[in-house]
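Q: What structure does this chain adopt?
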Amino acid sequence: MGEPFKLTIGATDTARPDEFEVTVEEVRCGEPLDPEVVAHAAESVGEATPTPTPEGGKQYCVVALEVANVGKSEAVWQAGDVVTLNVDDTAYSQSLADADHAYDYRQYWYSKGKAGPSFGLNPGSRGPDYGIFQIPADDDPTTVWVASGTSLESFDGAEPGYLVQLAPTD
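A:
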């Protein structure tokens, strides 16, 4: 964690692959979603919304990433379909509701002048991205998987990627 790694994502419909440098900055579990983010999301729809709560017996985990475009053209990337938060050998992906919360984080930071890769980054630009996951309340995450493709799996099987070891909790 805290060490950048490079993702090269090729696509058949582009002249050159997208290249990013990704750093897992923080993984925070067992706390409510950021109240400022929740308030901003409610304000953007013009009505009060209930504070999000995880499923019974689960906790929210927020994975904060810093993403830099180190490629040669503008590129778009987001954690939603390519990141899992893992507890030992069990991988947790974002649910649709969790993806909505991650979107709220991206919108909040965009409103603060920190556009992330989901909005498109030009070469040399960087910004934050977030993954929101629900894992069992008594578990601590051990790793984060970041696939180096546009999804976790393709028709050929699992996409290659990077496994980020999280520091053990004391």
